[in-house]
Amino acid sequence: MQKEYPVVSSVAGLCVPACLRSILLTKKMDFSIEKIAKDLGIEIPKKYTEKYPDLKINKQNIFKQPINEEKYSINNFFKKNGIPFKMKLVYTKDTTKLKEILKKHFHKADIAVCYDFPTSTNKPGKLGHIAIIFKLDKNTLELSHPSNINKNIVSYVKLTKAIQTHSKKKMAGIWIFKKDK
Predict the structure, then answer these.
(1) Domain 85-181 has what CATH class?
(2) Model confidence, pTM
(3) pLDDT tens-digit readout, 81-101
(4) Assign residue 169 a region: left if phi > 0, alpha if psi is -120 to 50, beta otherwise?
(5) Burial class (CB in 10 A: 0-12, 13-18, 19+), 56
């Protein structure tokens, strides 16, 4: 089971708008990364202001993504822009349940995952990330940030651990994008 999404170029800290843009482009909806980021209340380090002049500069000089606040939520972005979609967050600590959720929704929806990237690659550190799920296999899945042509193959077990590490508080989990009824 495999899906294709367009490559979308962005800086690493704008992975949420890049994923949304990639998904929306498959629906023939063209929103810039900057427009999506602005509507999501994302603030950027000063060094990116030339590339993204309409985005607010963060005082601590870091990426700030307040998408867990209602006014900056993805569903609010959809509503504000007349996009007939809803995003549902599903958090699980159980690998079997994770596989079941993905199999159930993969052909009916677009799916992304919010997780701790270093945990998924056995590298040190902590770094929240979101990636689109492109392919499901028996024991692994392929996911990638849309600006990366190389898709990462990750086991369901490792992805479950990466979701737990990032935490539900930080919106870790499976993000299911479906048409709003």
Answers:
(1) alpha beta
(2) 0.92
(3) 999 999 999 999 999 999 999
(4) alpha
(5) middle
